[in-house]
Amino acid sequence: MSCRGRDELRGFEERDHGVFAAKLMEHLAVAAFVIDRSSRVLIWNKALERLTGVPAGEMIGRTDYWRAFYAEQRPCLVDLLLAGDFSRAGDLYEAWSDPDVNPGGLCAENWCLMPRAGRKCYLAFDVGPIFDESGDVIAVVETLRDLTAHKRMEAELEDLAGRDALTSIANRRTFDNRLGEEWRRCRRMAQPLSLLAIDVDYFKQYNDAYGHLQGDECLKRVAGCLQGEALRGGDLAARLGGEEFSIILPQTPNSGALAVAERIRKSLRAARLMHGSSPISQYVTVSIGVVTTTDESAVMELNELVAMADAALYCAKRRGRDCVVSFSEDCCDADRLYLSR
Fold it and tell me: Any idea where the PAC domain is (predicted)?
């Protein structure tokens, strides 16, 4: 290396490393900001300006950097690290790392409203302390990555995995998970939970007469009827397989569940879907079994509730189909015995 080259290298090494580090951070491709021990913003880099829509000139020296990410005041991840208090992380973030697993730093993910940018983003945050030569924390740096597209795609895939491919309502997997959640909630809060078991009457004969493609269209129409007539925000309609459907009705007494079931039955009749092979009607009909938790349900198992709904459904079929039957010991004991075989 020439003397001139060595001199230039020596000169570079002797420059103010703090200024160089600040410039490096400012032009870093990853969005980032740095606060001092007093929570004042020291650096607000260009990538973060683009992400939040907030220029550095408005943030340098300020402590209300939360405004760039949220509509209401709340701690950011840098604040938790600076305070050394991670107890609130679970309440503030959708996902976060255990600081014991990642000592000296913290990672989290959350939806942010981004008021100035005018869009909602799902961001991944990583924070770490900056120490002086004595080992004291003099600043904290937070980097941010926009995972919105990935998160939305993940949600779409999860939604598809939980839906019946033919009818687009919930599938058996989603039904089982939700029923378990609602069962635990109703027992914990002593609130009623109703369950509807629904079968399309003489569906095999329908398929034989009209073909499987028309049979698929029939199932879609039935699913649409369930969605259109039965559901509040917390209710769930699901196709369990074949011509079997079910509806979960949280916080619904037996009288309300019976009213929902009867609306479904009448709505499907009013749709006038031709069924020339049905011995009970010229139109497609359904049989519905209804069961509702009672004070004695606290000692029941969830599978017993499902068995009662099925027993009520078979009772409806024994009564001639195209009807609604609520579970009772008198009318359904024989059907429970049949189902248990």
Answer: 107-159
